[in-house]
Amino acid sequence: MNKQQDEKWMRHALSLANNAEQQGEIPVGAVLIKDGQIIGEGWNQSILQHDPSAHAEMMAIRQAGCVIENYRLIDTTLYVTLEPCPMCAGLLVHSRIRRLVFGASDYKSGAAGSVMNLLQDEKLNHQVEISSGVLAQECGDRLSAFFKRRRAEKKKLKQKKREES
């Protein structure tokens, strides 16, 4: 695939991550492309929807299935700002997504090579092509800034509670 195209769509995924952050969610965005067109997009909404499965990838893939009226998303590419977790990696395999492009690696729960690689396990009936590290610095910085801010907010809350006691 073309590096310029990958960066274009990853920038779109980063813009979707903004939606998550504005809603108090972990800033992860995803966009699913077929024949150069968006067929699904999403961002993390687990907190807002009280749904542990409402990850950016899940939201984009659910939307795409409705758009093309098929649960098989053959010949598609998913762009996501953070390496998918095992749940989302399983979804990519079951959806028959052809290619995954992700930005930041997830060394705690990444299932596209960091902790494990479910997407290319020969025991499974479908393997997904993986391109990693696209705009990795920008994607990683966005997440790091979010968690740094969140930790500072929690620290402030603790201090405030102590002062009120």
Automatic annotation (TrEMBL):
Q: Which lineage do the record's taxonomy fields give for this organism?
A: Bacteria, Pseudomonadati, Pseudomonadota, Gammaproteobacteria, Alteromonadales
Gene this protein is translated from: tadA
Q: What is its EC number?
A: 3.5.4.33
Q: Which NCBIfam families match?
A: PRK10860.1
Q: Any signal peptide, and if so, which residues? A: none
Which part of the chain is the CMP/dCMP-type deaminase domain? 4-115
Concerning CDD domains, the annotation shows: nucleoside_deaminase
What PROSITE patterns does its record include?
CYT_DCMP_DEAMINASES_1, CYT_DCMP_DEAMINASES_2
Give the required cofactors. Answer: Zn(2+)
Q: In UniProt terms, what function does this protein have? A: Catalyzes the deamination of adenosine to inosine at the wobble position 34 of tRNA(Arg2).
Under what name is this protein listed? Answer: tRNA-specific adenosine deaminase
| InterPro entries in alphabetical order | APOBEC/CMP_deaminase_Zn-bd (IPR016192), CMP_dCMP_dom (IPR002125), Cytidine_deaminase-like (IPR016193), tRNA_aden_deaminase (IPR028883)
